[in-house]
Amino acid sequence: MTEEKQPKRRTFGEMSTDARILYNVLEQRIVKGGEEQIAYDDLSRAIGRDVRTVGRGVLLTARRNIERDHSIVLECVTKEGVRRTTALSGVLSGTTRRIGKLARRNTARVINAATKADMPNDERVQVATEASILGAIAQFAKPKSRRLIEAKVRENKAAELPTAETLRLFGGNGGTKTT
C-alpha cells in the first residue's frame, strides 16, 4: 500500500513563485530603481505568461504585497503597465465617484423593478433597507457633500474625521441612540 503524496499547500499569505518573481521585479525597478512605470510586456516576460490575462491574479498579489510592504500605491495603466502614483487623493476621489455612481445606478434599477414585483413583505423591507444605505452612500459621494466634509477636515488640521462626526455634519446624531 503506497501513500499518495499530497501537493504542498501554501499557507495563507504565502506568495506563489510567479507572484514572488513579479514582486522582486517591481521592488527592484520601482521601489529601489526609482522607475515610475514598468510595461506589462516586461512583467509578462518575467513570468512567461501575459499579466493582462492569465497572469492577472499573480500581478494583483505582487502589487498588493509591494504596496503593503513599502507603503506605496501602484496603479495599472490601460495598455501600458504598472505605475507608482503619488496622487493619493486622486485614487480615493476616483473610488468615491465610482461607488456613488454605482450606488445611484443600481438603486434606481432595483427600485424600478421592485415597484412592480410581487414580493413578500420581508423582501420589500430588505430592498428598502439596502436602497436606504446606498442612497446615503450616493449622497455622501456628491460634490456638495465632499466640499462640506473637506471644510471640516481642514478645520480639523487635515486629520481624518471620525465616522460619527462626519454623520453629524449632515444632521445625524452620529449613530448614537436618542431616547
Keywords:
179 residues, mainly alpha, Arc Repressor Mutant, subunit A, 2 domains, 3-stranded antiparallel beta sheet, 7 helices, 59% helix
Q: Could you explain how this protein is built, in words?
A:
The protein is mainly alpha-helical and 179 residues long. It folds into 2 domains: 17-85, Orthogonal Bundle (Arc Repressor Mutant, subunit A), CATH 1.10.10; 88-169, no CATH class. Helices cover 59% and strands 7% of the residues. The protein is built from 7 helices and 3 strands. It has helices at 17-32, 40-47, 56-70, 88-114, 121-140, 143-155, 163-169; strands at residues 37-39, 73-77, 81-85. A hairpin with a 3-residue loop joins strand 2 and strand 3. Helix 1 crosses helix 3. The longest helix is centred in the middle third of the chain and has 27 residues, at 88-114. It is extended and about 55 Å long. The mean pLDDT is 87.
Question: Major beta sheet, specifics?
Answer: 3 strands, antiparallel
Overall mean pLDDT: 87
Pattern of helices and strands: HEHHEEHHHH
**Spans with pLDDT under 50 lasting ≥5 residues?**
none
Binned, the helix content reads: 55-70%
Q: Structural class of the helices, strands and pairings?
A: mainly alpha
How much of the sequence is in beta strands?
Answer: 5-15%
Total number of helices:
7
Total domain modules: 2
Concise account of the structure shown:
This protein has two domains: 17-85, Arc Repressor Mutant, subunit A (Orthogonal Bundle); 88-169, no CATH class. The protein is 59% helix and 7% strand.
